[in-house]
Fold this sequence. Notes:
Layout: H1 4-24, H2 30-53, H3 64-84, H4 88-96, H5 102-151, H6 160-172, H7 177-188, H8 195-222, H9 229-253, H10 258-268, H11 275-283, H12 287-313
Helix pairs in contact: 1-5, 1-8, 1-12, 2-7, 2-8, 3-4, 3-9, 3-10, 4-5, 4-11, 5-6, 5-7, 5-8, 5-10, 9-10, 9-12, 10-12, 11-12
Amino acid sequence: MNHPVIASLLPVVLFILAGFVAGKRRWIGGGAVRDLSNLVFMLLLPALLFRTMSAVHLEQLDFKPIGMYFLAASLVYAAVLLVQGYNRRGAVLALAGTFSNTGMIGIPLIGLAYGQPGMVTLFTLISLHSLVLLTSGNIVLELAAQREDLQRGVAPQHSVWVTVLRALRNGIIHPIPLPIIAGLLFGLTGWRIPPLLDQPLQLLGSAMGPMALVLVGVTLAYGSVGPHLKGALAMAGVKNLLHPAVVLGLGWLLGLSGVPLAVMVVTAGLPIGANVYLFSQRYGVAEDLTTASVAVTTVMALLTLPLVMLVAGQG
Length: 315
């Protein structure tokens, strides 16, 4: 019970289980899940990100592991796109194979397992995670949609450059990158957050982990996997096992080790982030499979994450 893997995962499992029970008993209605998710992403998570990053000094950050992580993600993304084909469905599934649930599960898990050094490494990654993956994913999706329209003889509504610029704007104006950037800029001033503001930010940030994990359980309670189980299991193989394996292999090749490598590998092994479903919903493609994949990768992570954390610890 005192093993670090078990000790760090057990609270995560218990919070998710509590949310699952609450969802099954309908203590939290299905319509309230979206509102509570907005509360986490729009208030609690930004408070945690801003407060943490305001105490970080840019010159102390190591971006080598981050570059390695995105290189690995691009390889997995390209592999899934190659298998699925260059279309909207393939683009959504490729994003699902590389976009981790860094907010709801990653932050509390990394914090419990690796402490403050791990959190700084994770937040450095998170500062670019959504910006890079969601922006590039949005661009690929838009271009794939235009390609499909042209194949059907439908003229695209916007030029390629307009599509790219809109995707870049949407990637930056996001509740995750903005507070991280704001926190880093505040830290550059050398000022400290006044106690009257710091304490509320600390309380809001500390509520993020439990609330987010409970919501994961509630979402699982309302989800439907059934007909898409086979496809969801295949996505779990890509997200929970292939992605961290590629990150680990590249990390070894580049000579990385210790907490930075472990955080990158474990982050890659996290289940699919909910933002992928929003993409599938927006483009009206693979919605049921994406929903099932989010649920299955989350459940499977209870089995695969201990393995990933143990292997990463050997690095």
